[in-house]
Amino acid sequence: MKTDSELQRDVLDELEFEPQVDHAHIGVTAKSGVITLTGFVPNYMQKIAAEHAAARVKGVRAIAEEIEVRLANDPKTSDPEIAERIVQVFRWDVSVPDDRIQVRVEHGWVTLSGEVDWNYQKKAAQAAAGKITGVKGINNRIEVRAEPSPSDVRERIMAAIKRSSAIDASGIDVTVSGHTVKLSGEVHGWNERRVAEQAAWAAPGVTKVEDDIVFA
């Protein structure tokens, strides 16, 4: 006798195998041989085809069919649709680092998680998600990275410069004020100056680099 998880997997496989069914938005649960189909399809024929596909799986004793027919012009307010639209909005919003934010939607309630560098990015993600139709509420669990102190930033930049074989770190001085880094000292060529600048820009929280390095 199949377990519930085995039966669920078999029904999902059969729905995927059935060419008349767009299975992407169909959910399946199994309990003691009873299959429950949820989600939505674009027309009534697919609804019937999905039910028939599930019924022909060995071990299925009964089917509770809760699939909705969702027409193309109907509001896109199911949980998967809401999540997909939020992800799309994040991709277009330059204020949101979409690759570092996760989205979960349950009964219209959105949970945002992940980590960003700035608080405005956290606020921008919540504002963007809140514009999506069907969102009932937002639980914003995005964490803002602790901002490093100027001394930490300086140490990171100096460490990066010292690691580079292309520059003599003894001739470089770094000072940090707020989010601005000032480079001074002497180097032997443009390449060394470029390496120092790259190390400064790579440090977290840096928004401006003042390069006062001169050539020896």
TrEMBL record:
PROSITE patterns attached to this UniProt entry: BON
InterPro entries in the record: BON_dom (IPR007055), Lipoprotein_DolP (IPR051686), Transpt-assoc_nodulatn_dom_bac (IPR014004)
Family matches, as Pfam families: BON
The keyword Signal belongs to this UniProt entry's keyword annotation: yes
Protein name per its UniProtKB record: BON domain-containing protein
Domain of life (superkingdom): Bacteria
Keyword field: Signal
Gene3D superfamilies per record: 3.30.1340.30
Residue ranges of domain BON in the record: 3-71, 78-146, 149-216
